[in-house]
């Protein structure tokens, strides 16, 4: 599995490279400090996987993902970021990212995500969405659209406290850690992946 890594923080970029290179089935074939450099690197070395940070200089990871997928559609793109913003999750998946991973994930999980052919989002899909109530499914869908609790409350004509309760239930039932994972789960379900 040939991998490139793009992150504007040298320590993160090189640390991730060292972590992945320790796995015999992974070969790190290039590092980039920005989005534009990542797009050029992907076109030049044709990796199997590109790991991109969301926030980078020149062009961000989402824009770089779109460009990589357009120029080299066989490259699988995984976002590796600290951003838990539901809008970032949704934007990345919409332009073709195969996964959205948070940098605080366990190292073994990152290796597994890189080696996996399946779409990967740091979210558990083990509990089917039909385990949710109708209202919880509505809340999950609105989380997937990037709405905040206040906006969800306005849409559903309920209090913010009620929305917080529904969000908590969604996270517990789907075994998700945060809103970003819930948004990614909703986006994945909507995209059929």
Q: How would you describe this protein?
A:
Keywords: DNA-binding, Phosphoprotein, Transcription, Transcription regulation. One of its GO terms (biological process) is phosphorelay signal transduction system. Pfam families: GerE (PF00196), Response_reg (PF00072). It comes from Solirubrobacter phytolaccae. It is a single chain. The protein contains 9 helices and 6 strands. The protein is an alpha/beta fold and 193 residues long. The chain folds into 2 domains: 120 residues, Response regulator (Rossmann fold, 3-Layer(aba) Sandwich); 63 residues, Winged helix-like DNA-binding domain superfamily/Winged helix DNA-binding domain (Arc Repressor Mutant, subunit A). It has a 6-stranded parallel sheet, with helices on both faces. Strand 3, helix 3 and strand 4 form a beta-alpha-beta unit. The radius of gyration is 17 Å and the shape is elongated. The two termini are 22 Å apart.
Distance between the first and last residues' Cα:
22 Å
Helix-strand category: alpha/beta
In the predicted model, the low-confidence regions spanning at least 5 consecutive residues are: none
CATH class of the largest domain: Alpha Beta
Give the total of beta strands: 6
The major β-sheet equals: 6 strands, parallel
What is the compact description of this entry?
With 193 residues, this protein is of the alpha/beta class. It has helices at residues 10-21, 35-45, 61-71, 86-94, 107-115, 134-144, 149-156, 160-174, 179-191; strands at residues 2-6, 27-32, 49-52, 76-81, 99-102, 120-121.
């Amino acid at each position: 599995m040939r991998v490139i890594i793009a992150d504007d923080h040298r320590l993160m970029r090189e640390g991730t490279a060292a972590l992945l290179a320790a796995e015999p089935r992974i070969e790190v074939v290039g590092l980039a400090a920005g989005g534009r450099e990542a797009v050029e690197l992907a076109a030049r070395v044709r990796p199997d996987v590109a790991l991109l940070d969301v926030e980078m200089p020149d062009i961000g990871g989402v824009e770089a993902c779109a460009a990589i997928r357009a120029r080299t559609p066989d490259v699988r793109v995984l976002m590796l970021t600290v951003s838990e913003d539901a809008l970032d999750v949704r934007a990345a998946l919409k332009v073709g990212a195969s996964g959205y991973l948070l940098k605080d994930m366990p190292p073994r999980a990152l290796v597994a995500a890189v080696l996996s052919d399946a779409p990967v989002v740091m979210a558990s899909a083990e509990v089917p969405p039909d385990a949710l109530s109708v209202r919880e499914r509505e809340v999950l869908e609105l989380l997937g659209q990037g709405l905040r609790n206040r906006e969800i409350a306005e849409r559903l004509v309920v209090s913010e406290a009620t929305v917080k309760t529904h969000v908590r239930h969604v996270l517990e039932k789907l075994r998700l850690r945060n809103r970003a994972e819930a948004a990614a789960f909703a986006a994945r379900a909507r995209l059929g992946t």
